[in-house]
């Protein structure tokens, strides 16, 4: 027996780490949105892809400036994620609304977000329309993370409490680290 999930098919591919994508307007006004559809797509050169709704303000700003930052944050900022994922920067200042602090990035014009634990600064490589979204492929110009919660082995999941999006208003936090057994 199967449950039919075509109209929520993407939840089969969740949970996904939810990041904040920051962008900036020509006049220098920053914006931020929640984004669960993100992934690495190349190591050499370093590149990532994000799928961003074509109606969103972020979509317009990334096309306009050709740059964006990806900001990763812990579970204590779940409400901020929700605000950034349910309001549009066309109408409100989400930094103020969500109590987030924009700070200058190292290599790009859009800001990074002070409260976050890790950052990827990206220059737009190219983009392709995909249904109601645009897939933006960004070259990662710089990437850095707080030593408190990240090492060469990856996230210290107990310390960071990474919120992963299940769908709707539901999130989950990874708790266990496991390794595949090696066959002789
Ligand atoms: C947890 C969560 C994850 C989201 N992930 C995405 C995503 O991957 N792509 C997308 O286009 N919108 C996503 N959204 C919705 C956008 O964040 C939302 O449309 C936002 O209001 C756009 O803001 P903007 O108009 O200021 O750019 C997500 C919302 C939430 C709450």
How is this structure best described in words?
It is a single chain. This protein starts with 15 loop residues before the first strand and ends in a 12-residue tail after the last strand. A hairpin with a 2-residue loop joins strand 9 and strand 10. The strands form 4 sheets. It has a 7-stranded antiparallel β-sheet with strand order 3-2-6-9-10-5-4. A 3-stranded antiparallel β-sheet has the order 1-13-14, with no helix packed on it. Strands 7-8 form a two-stranded antiparallel ribbon. It is 14% helix and 40% strand. It has one domain (6-172): Electron Transport, Fmn-binding Protein, Chain A (Pnp Oxidase, Chain A), CATH 2.30.110. By secondary structure, the protein is mainly β. The radius of gyration is 17 Å and the shape is globular. Bound molecules: flavin mononucleotide. Flavin mononucleotide binds next to strand 3, strand 5, helix 1 and helix 2.
Question: Helix and strand layout, with pairings?
Answer:
Elements: E1 16-17, E2 19-24, E3 30-35, E4 38-42, E5 47-53, H1 57-65, E6 67-72, H2 78-86, H3 94-97, E7 102-103, E8 112-113, E9 118-130, E10 133-145, E11 150-151, E12 154-155, H4 157-160, E13 164-167, E14 170-172
Antiparallel strand pairs: 1-13, 2-3, 2-6, 4-5, 5-10, 6-9, 7-8, 9-10, 11-12, 13-14
Bound molecules: flavin mononucleotide (FMN).
Residues 18, 31, 33-37, 51-53, 56-58, 81-82, 85-90, 133, 165 line the site of flavin mononucleotide (FMN).
């Amino acid at each position: 027996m199967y449950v039919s999930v075509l109209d929520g098919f993407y939840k089969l591919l969740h949970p996904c780490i939810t990041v904040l994508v920051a962008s900036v307007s020509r006049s220098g006004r920053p914006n931020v949105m929640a984004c669960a559809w993100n992934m690495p797509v190349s190591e050499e050169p370093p590149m990532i892809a994000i799928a961003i709704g074509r109606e969103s303000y972020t979509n317009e700003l990334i096309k306009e400036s050709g740059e964006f930052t990806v900001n990763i944050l812990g579970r204590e900022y779940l409400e901020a994620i929700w605000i950034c994922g349910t309001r549009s920067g066309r109408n409100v200042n989400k930094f103020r609304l969500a109590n987030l602090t924009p700070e200058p990035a190292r290599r790009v014009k859009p800001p990074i977000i002070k409260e976050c634990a890790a950052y990827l600064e990206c220059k737009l490589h190219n983009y392709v329309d995909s249904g109601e979204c645009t897939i933006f492929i960004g070259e990662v110009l710089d990437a850095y993370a707080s030593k408190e919660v990240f090492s060469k082995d990856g996230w210290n999941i107990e310390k960071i409490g990474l919120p992963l999006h299940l769908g709707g208003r539901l999130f989950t936090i990874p708790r266990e680290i496991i390794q595949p057994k090696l066959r002789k």
